[in-house]
Amino acid sequence: MTSSPSKNAPHLPPSSAGPHLGSPRSLGRLRQQKSAHQLSSNYSALNGPSLISQQRQQQRITGITQNTPIPPPPVPAIPSPQKHIRARSNSDAVVPHPVNVGPSLKRIQVPKKPVDPKDELRSLIRHGPRGDMPDALQSLRHWILVDGLEADNDGMSDLRIYVWLILLNSPPLPTDIYLNLIRRGPSPAYAKIRNDTHRTLMTNVLFQRRVRENSIIRLLNAVAWKLYDAKSDRLTDSGRITNASNDLGSPELQHASPAIKHAKGASTATNEGSEAGGSEPGIYVQGMNVLCAPFLYTCRTEPQAFIAFYHFITRECPGYIRGAMDGVHKGVALVERCLTVADSRLSAYLTSKGVSAQIYAFASVLTMSACTPPLPEVLLLWDFLFAYGSHLNILCICSQLMMMREELLADPSPGKLLRSFPPLQAKEIIALTVNLVRKIPSDLYEELVHHAE
Question: Which intervals of the chain are annotated as region Disordered (predicted)?
């Protein structure tokens, strides 16, 4: 049995590689190292390791390779000690005369950064006007006329829908109200709506890429139910029962099924479509699908488009959605009268060629010029119409004719050119329309304002 290494290992004496700690020679070296360490401690952070650390590194390297000469480690330069001098106090400093003060001592006036119009408009929409409401609305209208709303190449602007809602005085609509209208199913005008929706701006790539036909169907069907309820309320108020109405219409109609409602009022509702006449507003007329298209393209959600479109057709142009569309026919007649005032020669030439406004202006009057591409220019034109009144669309049509004046006068058959208007140029049309307003007599302008009522 072998013994363990710990028991048989010889006792090693203290190493003689270095001097004993108790000798005077070792104490002297210790004091030297301590002194060197104190001198270099203040510069270790800037000039690398301390002197004692460098000596220890040199000893370790020397113990490994004795034959390799090692250069001495670099010693950081120690600056000469400076005498402490008391700094001058402020009490005995010489104060310069204000006249002799240099530019560096004068207070520099930093110019104020100009306010970004977009930020100012965002603040107006988010926090409301700071002063009077009429003044704020006037500033907003002037803003649209002079600067315009900022938008991308597709006509998209994150502020446009909120500006439209303000100008149309449309309050926020709870989403549940719109969903309740959708849940009621097909309206009495559903078949006529489906006949028109697939033709809505069918050649416009921007619109077809962003808006689906299902959205158009839902929106028009919800508007039809809303107009249907309003019609039923008027019939009830003038007859036997008087009911209080809310956003969904009559309380009786809110809880009734679509079949009961259809049986109750189909005799009046379906007879006032795009073909029939009458002075009562219909629930759907041809052309409403094109009128709602810019709202769906601009709005963030369908409820936003619904409330904006509903307030637009019921407040700005209710005469356009009547069964006989008498407001549209009045507008077409006003196009010829206003063109006679604006450009009598062009008006007389078109009349002599048998080209009437009923041929070339009917679609533009009915759709507020939304039938003429491109869509981004339509949105710019609608900004102007919502700001200063949709009745100015009549003068905008006259402005488009005046922009084609030379071509029309030079063509022996101007009716061919007017089968479709050239692409919209909103800024040029708006500029001509503003100048044209001054030429219109007061009585004629009064008819313009009230023709769509």
Answer: 1-47
